[in-house]
């Protein structure tokens, strides 16, 4: 098969609640959906959520990167097997130039190609994971995978919702912190109190994500040490990438694992942290990290170095990315934490037929047997359309 056309949809989807953390506030999500059509008529979709403050990308940069960099690497080439296509995709590295890391563009394009060809050859995308060799079986014992939840830093919301989420069977809870140390302390104390018995057993976990909020290690320690004393067992991205050199020292003093999110977009960036002592882990997110293969490469690296990793999501991602992430969850049940597949809990409407949403207690959603395992409803996609371009 050969790619006959690529269409890029720039969409804006309304969210059910406004999201706020130390770096952003939004009530809509601006996503890019790529549609790839093959010469035999098979069609596949991929998605990226470009976040300027993380990768430097915008919807416009995604269009340019797919058109000028990623698609030309496959244009005109013909593939006889799914493996052959997979090997061609493995050769495409993430383009990083002028301070922009074009990983969301790579993710959206790669997933669309994997989906279309998976349908053409009758395979799911996980069929290609063995091409990476090193991914192999999960390291260490792993529990059945469970998705967790992230709580907004709103006291009333935590008070009202945490009990319900606990009853719903969730195990892993994450709180956003960093806007106001005093409020953070009160929020974490409230959550710790509501989860107390479960945290002790331990049948629940509590962690925080600061989204780069603290200006230096001293400020981070001052704010985080009291939270750790309350039972916080892991901290995500305490400081911005300008403080990357100081993260390992902070992890040593804090005494709980640190996961980096905004600081790790590529395998090279991950390498630097997961080999440290103590190893600093990674929040692996498909769009931020350049798609399926690059995410698996980072997971394999974390395993080799004994670093923890999380399978995370982007606020506002649709069932397309959620389905791809579900594949990663199947391949990496040893992820320390999983979050995603919120579907219509977060989106006013999804762009897929049916849904890819976690079940009771955060059980993984079901997906179909070929490609990413989800059917896109293009009529719905067009409701949120800001613009589209097609090239051949
Ligand atoms: Mg994060």
Task: Provide a brief overview of the structure.
The protein is of the alpha/beta class and 392 residues long. It has 13 helices and 14 strands. The protein has helices at 52-55, 59-70, 82-90, 103-121, 155-167, 181-194, 196-200, 217-229, 247-254, 267-274, 292-305, 319-331, 378-383, and strands at 3-21, 24-38, 43-48, 96-97, 100-101, 149-151, 172-176, 205-209, 235-236, 258-260, 281-284, 309-311, 337-338, 385-391.
SS content category: alpha/beta
By DSSP (H or I, 4+ residues per run), the number of helices equals 13
Radius of gyration (CA) equals: 20 Å
Provide the low-confidence segments as ranges. Answer: none
Which small-molecule species are bound to the chains here? magnesium ion
Distance between the termini: 15 Å
Helix content: 25-40%
Main beta sheet strand tally, sense and closure: 8 strands, parallel
Mean pLDDT: 94
Number of strands: 14
Strand proportion: 15-25%
Order of strands, widest sheet: 6-7-8-9-10-11-12-13
Question: Which overall shape is indicated by the principal axes computed on the Cα atoms?
Answer: globular
Order of helices and strands: EEEHHHEEHEHEHHEHEHEHEHEHEHE
List the helices and strands and how they pair.
Blueprint: E1 3-21, E2 24-38, E3 43-48, H1 52-55, H2 59-70, H3 82-90, E4 96-97, E5 100-101, H4 103-121, E6 149-151, H5 155-167, E7 172-176, H6 181-194, H7 196-200, E8 205-209, H8 217-229, E9 235-236, H9 247-254, E10 258-260, H10 267-274, E11 281-284, H11 292-305, E12 309-311, H12 319-331, E13 337-338, H13 378-383, E14 385-391
Bound molecules: magnesium ion.
């Amino acid at each position: 098969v050969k790619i006959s056309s690529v269409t890029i949809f720039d969409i804006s989807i309304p969210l059910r609640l406004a999201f706020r953390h130390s770096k952003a506030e939004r009530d809509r999500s601006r996503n890019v959906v790529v549609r790839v059509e093959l010469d035999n008529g098979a069609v596949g979709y991929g998605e990226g959520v470009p976040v300027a403050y993380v990768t430097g990308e915008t919807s416009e940069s995604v269009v340019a990167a797919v058109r000028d960099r990623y698609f030309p690497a496959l244009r005109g080439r013909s593939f006889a097997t799914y493996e052959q296509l997979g090997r061609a995709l493995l050769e495409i590295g993430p383009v990083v130039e002028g301070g922009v890391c074009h990983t969301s563009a790579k993710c959206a394009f790669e997933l669309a190609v994997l989906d279309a060809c998976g349908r053409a050859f009758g395979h799911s995308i996980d069929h290609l994971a063995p091409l990476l060799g090193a991914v192999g079986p999960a390291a260490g014992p792993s529990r059945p995978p469970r998705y967790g939840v992230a709580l907004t830093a709103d006291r009333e919301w935590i008070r009202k919702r945490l009990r319900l989420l606990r009853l719903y069977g969730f195990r892993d809870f994450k709180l956003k912190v960093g806007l106001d140390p005093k409020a953070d302390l009160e929020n974490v104390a409230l959550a710790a109190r509501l989860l107390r018995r479960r945290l002790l057993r331990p049948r629940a976990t509590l962690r925080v994500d600061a989204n780069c909020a603290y200006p230096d290690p001293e400020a981070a320690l001052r704010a985080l040490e009291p939270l750790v004393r309350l039972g916080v067992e892991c901290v995500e991205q305490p400081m911005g990438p300008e403080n990357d050199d100081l993260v390992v020292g902070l992890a040593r003093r804090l005494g709980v694992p640190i996961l980096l999110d905004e600081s790790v977009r590529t395998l090279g960036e991950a390498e630097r942290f997961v080999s440290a002592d103590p190893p600093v882990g990674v929040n692996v997110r498909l769009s931020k990290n350049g798609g399926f293969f690059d995410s698996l490469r980072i997971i394999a690296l974390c395993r080799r170095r004994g670093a923890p990793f999380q399978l995370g999501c982007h606020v506002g991602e649709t069932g397309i990315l959620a389905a791809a992430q579900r594949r990663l969850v199947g391949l990496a049940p040893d992820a320390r934490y999983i979050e995603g597949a919120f579907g219509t809990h977060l989106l006013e409407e999804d762009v897929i037929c049916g849904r890819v949403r976690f079940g009771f207690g955060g059980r993984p959603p079901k997906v179909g047997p070929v490609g990413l395992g989800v059917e896109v409803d293009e009529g719905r996609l067009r409701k949120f359309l800001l613009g589209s371009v097609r090239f051949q």
